[in-house]
Amino acid sequence: PGVSLLDHVLAVEILNDDGAAAWENYDMPYGLFEDIVVLKMSILKGDGSEEEGRQYLNKIMFPDLEAGDLILVHYQTTRIATGKLYHQFWDQFFFASGRAPVVKAQYHLFIPPDQDIEYKLWTVAASSDQGKPMVKNKFEGYREYRWTIENQPRAGRELLEPDARLTYPWLDLSTIPTWDRIAGWYLDMSEGQIEM
User: Fold this and answer.
1) Torsion (CA) 154, 169, 76, 57 in degrees, nearest 10
2) Which residues of the chain have pLDDT under 50?
3) What is the DSSP letter of 113?
4) Reading across the β-sheet that carries 170-174, which strands appear in turn?
5) What is the dihedral of CA 79, 80, 82, 85, to 10 degrees?
6) Cα 156 from chain centroid?
7) Beta bridge partner(s), residue 13
8) I need a labelling partner for 62 at 20 to 30 A (CA). Which of 13, 33, 121, 130 fits?
C-alpha cells in the first residue's frame, strides 16, 4: 500500500475570555482511513508554566484556559491508500480558520524528485506573490514545496457570508494525472458487486 504522513502543528494565543471558551476543545480533523498520533498538546500559561491537555479520540481538551495562555498542538496523521491509487497522493488545505484570525499558515509537501504534482491555489490573485510555492531540492533527495499565506481574517464571521472556499485561500493538490485513473480505481472496487 501507499503510505503518506501528514504533520500538523497549531499554535494559538488566547487573547480574551471568548477565545478561552472557543479553544477549550479542539477537534483534530482526520479522514476515515487515517491514524492519529498526538506528539504534543500543551498549554503554555501566562506565568511561564506548562500544562498538558487531555485527549479523547480525536478531541483535545484544554481546561482552565485564560487570556495570555498559548496552546500548542502537534499531531501526525498517517494515510494508507490501496488498489490502483496506492501510490497516489491528494489533499486539500485551508489557510483560514473559522475559529480565529490566522497570522501565518504554511503547507509543506515533500515528494520524490521524479513524482509529478498538480496543484491549484484558489482565491488568491494570480498577480500576488503570496501563496506561490517555494520549491527546493534539499531534503534527503526529495523536492520540497512550501506554500505560505499570512494575515487571514477569521472565516465565517457573518451569518450570510459565502462558503469559505469562495473567499479564503485554499490549496488543492494531487499526483493523480487523469480522471481515468479514478474511474479505474472505482471500477476495481465495484467489479464483482454488480448484479446483472
Assistant:
1) 50
2) 1
3) T
4) 90-94, 170-174, 118-122
5) 30
6) 18
7) 70
8) 33
Give Cα separations from 82 to 1, 29, 68 (angstroms): 5, 21, 45
* H or E stretch at 10: strand 2-13
C-alpha cell at 38: 498526538
The count of C-alpha atoms lying within 13 angstroms of the C-alpha of 65, restricted to the half-sphere facing its C-beta, is 26
Ramachandran angles phi, psi of 189, nearest 5°? -70, -35
Cell 479514478 maps to which residue? Answer: 182
| The length of the chain, given as a count of residues | 196
Q: Please tell me the predicted confidence (pLDDT) of residue 195.
A: 63
Which residues are CB-contacts of 45 (< 8 A; sequence separation ≥ 6)? 51, 68, 69
- Identify whether the C-beta of residue 64 lies closer than 8 Å to the C-beta of residue 16: no
Q: Of the candidates 5, 175, 6, 32, which has an alpha carbon nearest to the alpha carbon of residue 90? A: 175
Whole-model pTM?
A: 0.74
CB-based contact 145:134 (threshold 8 Å): yes
Nearest to 52 by CA among 34, 74, 36: 74
CB-based contact 8:74 (threshold 8 Å): yes
